[in-house]
Design goal:
Helix content: 40-55%
CATH superfamily: NAD(P)-binding Rossmann-like Domain
Shape: globular
Number of helices: 8
Bound molecules: NADP nicotinamide-adenine-dinucleotide phosphate
Number of domains: 1
Largest sheet: 7 strands, parallel
Strand content: 15-25%
Order of helices and strands: EHEHEHEHEHEHHHE
Structural class: alpha/beta
Radius of gyration: 17 Å
Number of strands: 7
CATH topology: Rossmann fold
Amino acid sequence: MKQLSGKTALITGASSGIGRACAKLFAAQGANIVAVARRENELQQLIREITEAGGSATCFCGDVSEENTARTMVDYSLDYFGALDIAVNNAAILGKSQPVEEITMAEWTHIINTNLGSAFLGAKYQIPAMRAGGGGSLVFVSSFVGYTLGMPHMSAYAASKAGVIGLTKALASECAADNIRVNALLPGGTDTPMGQEAASTAEARSFVENLHALKRLASPEEIAHSALYLASSSSSFSTGIALLADGGISVSRI
Ligand SMILES: NC(=O)c1ccc[n+]([C@@H]2O[C@H](COP(=O)([O-])OP(=O)(O)OC[C@H]3O[C@@H](n4cnc5c(N)ncnc54)[C@H](OP(=O)(O)O)[C@@H]3O)[C@@H](O)[C@H]2O)c1
């Protein structure tokens, strides 16, 4: 029995890493996928892989920090598949690692707008579409950074990801009466282009792996399974939660 049969799921940041793994897993679970990111070739390749495996998917190119993208990607989902049941707002950037006094206002704003502004804009247009369809499930991808761990030289990223958790909690209470659940997913270190950028030397990778009780990074597919839990009716009594899929970073002290 497929968990997402008949559902339409919009996934941002689907050209790479966790978003790409979510798109493939959700499609295998029967969802119609709207895959969003800026790089068209990567999205087209993903759509080919999903359709060759018997799934249903289309893509939409745009910058999720722009309001026009947030609005038109929802319109596109409604036009193409006739519904919007699930949204995984996952797209984000890490930004340069640097001490706070070296961050320019332009760099700060770029990271906050890309990671947190896109979450707000996503919700602004996804929620009315879900309400009109009788309900839905919104998932925001946050991070252990800024929640269980304060990492030096990542203040803008941490602030953006902590902000996503606050947004999640507010929207969960705002939208519960509309049968819309809103949850945040907090991955630990994950072996994606972003994870590799954050731990770009063997020494840094070993440091990051050792932060986890499990002493390794997650695969994007492992994190996609946690996103599937939040997106699907398996988590039907959860709303407003910050779900850790962090390999035990939050309990590890050695
Ligand atoms: N990897 C980790 O260790 C880790 C840990 C905790 C949390 N996370 C979170 O997990 C999520 C996915 O990260 P990942 O590791 O899979 O990263 P990734 O492989 O670098 O993928 C990031 C995705 O976001 C998209 N994106 C970035 N800026 C965008 C924009 N302005 N408009 C549209 N799309 C944009 C990228 O697509 P285009 O470049 O094609 O636009 C790409 O598909 C992020 O929210 C990240 O903060 C990651």
